[in-house]
Write a structure and sequence with these properties.
Layout lengths: L22 E6 L11 E16 L7 H12 L1 E11 L5 H19 L6 E8 L6 H12 L6 H7 L8 E9 L2 E10 L12 E6 L5 H13 L16 E6 L16 H21 L7 E9 L2 H12 L2 H8 L5 H9 L11 E4 L2 E5 L2 E2 L5 H8 L3 E7 L5 E8 L3 H8 L4
Parallel strand pairs: 3-4, 7-8, 9-13
Antiparallel strand pairs: 1-2, 2-3, 2-8, 5-6, 6-7, 9-14, 10-11, 10-13, 11-12
Helix pairs in contact: 2-3, 5-6, 7-9
């Protein structure tokens, strides 16, 4: 039985996307679960494509992640296979064999090396990826008619309630460089890279090592600043592919023309994709932005923000539209970061409920209550300790989260 999931009230329509020169998308039905939909995605990229990646920090990572770490170190790729419905994690040598079989099958078809074929899998942990279904799914995908970005985005989902994609661009000299991205993620979301499968494609001409540097930088400001439930997956992967088809000189470092513009566009792309994951948080009804300022450092601010964002008491209070700022005080205090009770200030929707360690004398809860009735919630924490700032995104915690995860394997 497959769960019937209602679309998140925070969903965003799939955007109009553009083709990326050197990228071809195909999907097929491997039928990893008993569902009537495509669940295997095959993305072919032209020879000479640069690749970079960030992966889960889980000590129990899947074979796909372990191999992926080694593969992105080479800086080049020819193909990506994404399996949905089975994470192939905690499956020992059988999981590794399943990935290697996929790599061999695709590399033989494309005439490339197996290490040039990246594989991701997402879904139930502890069940080996069925090699017969994978083989048939890959065979069907290799000859399938090219599909749209939305088709590919839909095929990589599991408990997602809407397909997620984003598009942006940058000007490098006289060349317009395009970036598109697709992502899946809904639960098991925590900033330990973060929990998701995300793929970014661009026609930019960029040196692989610098692409990796830029992706690492963008990740710290986006995927590492989101949380739904504080749990980190075994399969988290974000990959960036640059086909080099755009007509501009090679970007090799910060001194290259257009490096700043491309870095800003990549960071914007990662922010958009990261926020889409939170908007589809399992059972979510409110999108919460937590802004932390006055910390001793940016990293300290991020950790404090995540402590607030991961607090079940804070998240349930917001779900119940209760401006219980005492729970925010609790979450700041337990973060393990420098904080001073008598300097702490907290605001909801721009209205300060507490200032410098005390309740605001003329605090009017009416505008705060109205703000909490909406879907977009802003929470500010000012520590008065230094110049550190951070922005973190999360969602509320509702009974819907329990319902989805109690029935996940059915």
């Amino acid at each position: 039985m497959i769960m019937e999931l209602t679309q998140s009230p925070l969903a965003r329509p799939f955007p109009e996307m553009t083709d990326i020169a050197g990228v071809t998308l195909r999907v097929s039905r491997a039928r990893y679960k008993d569902w009537d939909r495509a669940d295997l995605t095959f993305i072919e990229v032209d020879e000479g494509t640069a690749v970079a990646g960030v992966f889960t920090q889980s000590a129990c990572a899947s074979s796909e992640v372990e191999l992926g770490r080694e593969q992105v170190a080479s800086g080049s790729a020819r193909a990506l296979i994404v399996n949905a419905g089975n994470s192939n994690a905690f499956t020992g040598y059988r999981g590794l064999e399943a990935v290697q079989a996929i790599q061999a099958q695709v590399s033989e078809s494309l005439g490339c090396k197996p290490k040039d074929v990246l594989v991701s899998s997402t879904g139930v942990i502890g069940v080996p990826l069925p090699q017969d279904k994978a083989r048939e799914g890959v065979e069907a995908a290799l000859t399938a008619t090219p599909c749209s970005w939305e088709d590919a985005a839909s095929a990589i989902t599991t408990t997602d309630t809407f397909a997620k994609g984003a598009r942006t661009s940058a000007m490098i000299a006289d060349a317009r460089v395009e970036l598109v991205g697709i992502i899946k993620g809904s639960g098991m979301i925590a900033p330990d890279m973060a929990t998701m499968l995300g793929y970014i494609f661009t026609d930019a001409n960029i040196e692989p090592a610098f692409l990796q540097e830029l992706l690492n930088r963008a990740n710290l400001q986006s995927f590492s600043c989101i949380t739904v439930d504080g749990d980190t997956s075994t399969s988290d992967t974000v990959l960036a592919f640059a086909t080099g088809k755009a007509d501009h000189t090679l970007i090799t470092g910060w001194d290259s023309p257009g490096a700043d513009a491309f870095a800003a566009a990549l960071c914007d792309m990662c922010n958009r994709l990261a926020q889409l994951v939170v908007r589809d948080g399992e059972g979510a009804t409110k999108f919460i932005t937590i802004r932390v300022s006055g910390a001793v450092s940016d990293e300290s601010a991020r950790r404090i923000g995540l402590s607030v964002a991961n607090s079940p008491l804070v998240k349930t209070a917001i779900a119940g539209e209760d401006a219980n700022w005492g729970r925010v005080v609790m979450a700041v205090g337990k973060a393990g970061e420098p904080a001073n009770r008598d300097k702490l200030s907290i605001a909801f929707g721009g209205v300060w409920a507490a200032r410098d360690g005390l309740p605001v004398d003329d605090y009017d809860e009416a505008p705060v209550a109205k703000h909490l009735q909406g879907q977009e919630i802003d929470l500010a924490v000012e520590l008065g300790m230094g110049e550190g700032i951070a922005r973190v995104w999360t969602c509320d915690l509702t009974h819907g989260y329990i319902s989805i995860n109690a029935d996940y394997r059915s």
